[in-house]
Amino acid sequence: xxxxxxxxxxxxxxxxxxxSTECQSLTAENIKYVVSQDKQNWIQALINCKSSGMELATxxxxxxxxxxxxFLKDSGHDLGYWLGGTKLGDGTYYWAPTGAKVVFTKxxxxxxxxxxxxxxxxxxxxxxxxSYSPKPTGWNDLNCNRSIQYICQTxxxxxxxxxx
Length: 164
Ligand SMILES: [Ca+2]
What we know:
By secondary structure, the chain is α+β, with helices and mostly antiparallel strands. 26% of the residues lie in helices and 18% in strands. The protein has helices at 2-21, 42-51, 62-74; strands at 33-35, 55-56, 81-87, 93-95, 100-101, 124-127, 139-142, 149-153. Strands 1, 2, 3, 4, 5, 6, 7 and 8 form an eight-stranded mixed β-sheet that branches. The N and C termini lie far apart (50 Å). Mean pLDDT is 84; it is low at 11-21. Calcium ion binds at residues 111-113, 115, 122, 140-142.
């Protein structure tokens, strides 16, 4: 009897936990970020985050920018990292994990510069600029084939209607 009660209680707990996480929209406060140990080109970074049950990170507001800035500072990361943004043929940047246009931006002054005339096109968004000193926080457009570390984040399954 006691065992049966315990089993029923466990089932109830499982149901409650499942329900509470079924569609809980992420806010800047509860997004979890992970910086990769490895360096990859942008498309492989996108795949690796997805393979680990996460997404290549997006930054959709000043609040999310500040949350990521704090996370990176607190965890001692001050290099350059792939975000989930890429430029398509129409010249517009999109967040690949959600398909949403990049509306909120945090480009460094002078960026995106597409690498200048003598370099390959720069079509992917990099957080940070490791060559700058002191290191500011912001975005740079970088050649998608470059291998750098990348930031994965928890997935938001509750996309707002105007996002999809
Ligand atoms: Ca650039």
